[in-house]
Amino acid sequence: MPLSLVILAAGLGSRMNSDLPKVLHPLGAAPLLAHAMRAGAALGPERVVVVTGHGAAEVAQAARAENPEALIAHQAEQLGTAHAVAQAREALAGFSGDIIVLYGDTPFVSPETLEAVVAARGRHGVVVLGFEAADPGRYGRLVTQDGTLERIVEYKDASAEERAITLCNSGVICADAALLFDLVDGVGNANAAGEYYLTDIIDLARARGLTAGVVACSEAETLGINTRTELAGAEAVFQARARAEALENGVTLIAPETIFFALDTVIGRDAVVGPNVIFGPGVTIESGAEIRAFSHLEGCHVSRGAVVGPFARLRPGAELAEDVRVGNFVEIKNAILDEGAKVNHLSYIGDAHVGERANVGAGTVTVNYDGVMKHRTTIGARAFIGSGSMLVAPVQVGAEAMTASGSVITGDVPDGALALGRARQENKPGLARRLRARLLALKANKSEG
Ligand code: UD1
Ligand code: CA
Q1: Alpha-carbon separation of residue 314 from 187, 231, 311, 350, 355 (angstroms)
Q2: 223 CB less than 6 Å from ligand 1?
Q3: Which residue's alpha carbon is at the smallest distance from atom 8 of ligand 1?
Q4: Ligand 1: does its nearest atom lie under 6 Å from the Cβ of 261?
Q5: What pTM was estimated for this model as a whole?
Q6: How far is CA 297 from CA 6, 112, 300, 339, in A?
């Protein structure tokens, strides 16, 4: 049975107290929306429709970043969850199969749970994902009878008796596409909130002689983010899971509780990660690489046998081949380091290519920016860059070439050549002692006067 996703992401999330639309707040260095989209993507949906409203342009951009084929439906006014689903009708024209509705602010729903919801559709016209709430608060309540769902009542509209129900609505709903849009058309807004409630489709489906079913999951999975406090709590949950998963996959984490992962971090077996390492978005670490303490990595690829840190910074476009060494207080950005290259101390390598086994001395800087444009530096294989070299790009240092330490290299260096780009040293015999004596005399005069 073909399946499509509708992800509701139009709400402002006023309780976040933020200019940023709620679904764009980051969790594991990825927008909340990306988490929901990823869980749904595991079902192999034919189409993915994201309903946008507040911050529509930014939300659409984030949706396309996660899935370039995502379709965007705009909900100009947020009149309720049924109204939001109705906006997806056009994007789903010509689609036949089931639709599963997810919320963009509910990041932890697992693919397995969604599969169970889809599977239950075989037995019911509409399936709702529910959970037993420790504190049901303001959730919609699932009114059931002998295991089938009779209706969903929103907290605001519920009687005292209904409020005592602890089985709650997660918001995830699954139904046949044509049926869903038909049912949504019949939803009115005569309720306490004056909203078009998606939850009303249960009543409407039953009035047509269809049955509704509930699949239950743990409350942790349906955790929705409404406040910054909840977001911070969710981050802790996300990190705990990511750490457990990395350990399970054979990664050594020396102090797991101090390591932070992103949603898309990939780390191979037998990699070793030291304490206090932060992975931003877009990091791949191959098997057997070592990332030492206090390193910060984003948008980079570290190959087998490479050692990074301690205190290293890898920024987007850093590509480290096998057995590369990047040491303390080194920053690498948009640069390829070929096999066995070493940049061990206090250097900035940006917009560059470093050839295999080249050695870049302490304090070297690729001077890539002229205040307006960025320029490239190329360092050849087995070249030796003396400590404190300023490589003023665009510039090329040839294979097996050397630069003298302290050089400012502004012109290309041919293969095998030594470049000296600094003033020649001059020694003045005895001058240091004479100078010091004069200064001491001056100081003594001053304190007397
Ligand atoms: C909803 C459910 C409630 C359930 C709860 C779970 C309804 C009527 N109620 O309530 O039964 O227990 O979720 O968290 O469905 N949205 C839009 N457009 C709108 C309105 C909402 O896109 O016009 C989006 C929001 O951005 C959010 C989601 O839909 O991602 C849920 O909306 P929200 O207003 O938070 O619903 P609740 O009142 O929490
Ligand atoms: Ca909510």
Answers
A1: 52, 27, 10, 10, 18
A2: no
A3: 197
A4: no
A5: 0.92
A6: 33, 31, 7, 19
Per CATH, the number for 228-419 is: 2.160.10.10
Dist CA 198 CA 196 (whole Å) = 7
Pocket mutation for ligand 1, best pick of 59, 81, 102, 172 (most atoms within 8 Å of C-beta):
81
pLDDT of residue 147: 84
127 Cα: distance to centroid of ligand 2 (angstroms): 19
The β-bridge partners of 53 are: 55
Is residue 52 within 8 Å of 150, Cβ to Cβ? no
- Output the residue whose Cα is nearest ligand 1's atom 39: 139
Q: Can you read off the two tokens belonging to residue 146?
A: 């002998």
Measured from the Cα of 168, ligand 1's closest atom is 12
Domain ranges of the chain: 3-222, 228-419
Opening angle at CA 233, ends 229 and 238, nearest 5: 145
pLDDT band at 186 (very low <50, low <70, confident <90, very high): very high
Summarize pLDDT for 253-283 with one digit per residue, the tens: 999 999 999 999 999 999 999 999 999 999 9
Active site residue 345: yes
Name the residues around ion ligand 2, CB cutoff 5 A: 224
Q: Does the beta carbon of 81 sit less than 6 angstroms from any atom of ligand 1?
A: yes
Surface-to-core class of residue 145, CB atoms within 10 Å of its CB (0-12 exposed, 13-18 middle, 19+ buried): exposed
The CATH number of the structural domain formed by 3-222 is 3.90.550.10
Ligand nearest to the CA of 12: 1
DSSP state string for 48-71: EEEEEBTBHHHHHHHHHHH-TT-E
